[in-house]
Design a protein that fits this description.
Elements lengths: L2 E3 L6 E3 L14 E2 L6 E2 L11 H10 L10 H24 L7 H24 L13 H12 L11
Helix pairs in contact: 1-2, 2-3
């Protein structure tokens, strides 16, 4: 028996496993009498808890391919807001009025994973991650948030 890597959580599991032990993703099953790999078609991303979403987003720190569920995106978005408020409080206690060192560190830590999870979320709705450039316009931000709130495609799309 050999080990394979789960495409969702990147954990090592047995090639005979039906599902990933860590994230529960159904795995490909090899036919018993041949080397043909049988797949069950497209499997949409599963809903994640708050802690799972944060863990997944930091494990996929700069992964811009694949898909992200609504829960993964919005829980990470909420976590970023909570951390931003906490770092602003820390900075205000240190005497900074607008922007301090802990806020700068928070922005640096969250910038790339926020772009990555938003790209994966847009891929789930069959849109290009480059549409995030619409954030440069005020009205474009509303479109991005609207698309990120939509239910993802249930079939394969051009970003799989």
């Amino acid at each position: 028996m050999s080990l394979i890597t789960c495409p969702d959580c990147q954990s090592q599991i047995s090639d005979a496993a039906l599902t990933c032990i860590k994230c529960g993703r159904p795995m490909q099953i090899k036919a018993a009498q041949s080397n043909v790999v049988v797949t069950e078609g497209f499997i949409p991303p599963r809903s994640l808890s708050f802690v799972e979403a944060i863990d997944t987003c930091f494990r996929k720190y700069a992964v811009f391919s694949g898909r992200a569920s609504r829960s993964e995106f919005w829980y990470f978005f909420l976590f970023g807001i909570i951390m931003g408020v906490l770092t602003d409080l820390i900075d205000s206690m240190m005497g900074y009025i607008v922007f301090g060192p802990s806020s700068a560190i928070s922005i640096l830590v969250f910038f790339i994973p926020n772009l990555a999870v938003a790209t994966r979320r847009l891929h789930d709705t069959n849109r290009s991650g480059w549409r995030q450039l619409w954030f440069l316009t005020i009205i474009g931000a509303f479109f991005i948030w609207f698309w990120c709130a939509q239910k993802g495609d249930q079939q394969t799309n051009s970003h799989d």
